[in-house]
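Record minuted for completeness.

…
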Amino acid sequence: MKHKRLKLNTGIDIGSSSIKIVQLSGNADNPVLMNFDIVKVGEKTADGYVKELVRMAGKYSFKEANIAISGPSVVVRYVELPEMTEDEMKSSMRFEAEKHIPFDLNDVNIDCQIIEQASHGKMQVLLVAAKKIAISELVKMSQRAGLTLNIIDCDSFALINAFLLTFPDLDTSANTALIHIGDNLTMINILKGRYAAFTRELEMGGIDIDKAISEKLNLGLSEAAEFKENPGDRYNELMEMAKPILANMIEEVKLSLSFYENQAGISVNKILLSGGLSNLKGLTEIFAESFGVECSQWGPFRFLKADKDIEIQKLRDLKAELPIAVGLAVRR
């Protein structure tokens, strides 16, 4: 699946245990999937990640990429402000950030964007702060791999970009919760129609189930992860070990959804799951029963054209793990 003829836009999702890459050609309105890959990182150090980035850059012939930052170094807030111009908003952002951002403002980069135009004299503004040291570390790691970063985005926004690309016909009255369950982090994004309305990250994910399996079956973490992904005829045994972790996760998600619903006065009516743990058999049914709403797994390839050399079955198998990389690759 290697292509050299076209200039490709590369999105790289660096997770806690793997690197996902997506390459798109064409423009933002008509992108074409040219390459994708997911590589497990054996040595989970900066050197280990640099080594894999170098290898992937050589394999897929890229020197520039878009990348995401996530975790406790990033804070996202949705702020209601009086109606004002964009210039006025940017001028007032430091004042607003002092009220909403729990970091020393000298240590962060701040950005803002109007996400919902004024109604009754008020407008909704997205406020984002990322620690400079975390950005610097990401840039240094990329430079060591010989890469130039064109865009550094938040992974939650990359997820939303992929969702909007996948569902251009979205009902504007829909209130959708995107829940992306990775190894160490679970991201919750709530969209009111096509507008982001709530974002939260939980420090929990598939690794917690791996640890439970490891302890119960006396396995290493990598062996436990393999058992989780391929339990064979021991599925019921797996779910018994996963049950308390999933119950805790669902309770935390419920708290987040309840907070949003109390603030906004409207309820989430659909849940879409992605991330590696969303591949767990029966998880969508567990969420649907727990929340009493429609729940399904999704991938960002509903309307995305694929090059003729793409391995379609592999794409179907990995679809739920690639939304963030797609959301990065679609950025220009």
User: Anything to note?
Assistant: The longest strand covers residues 108-119.
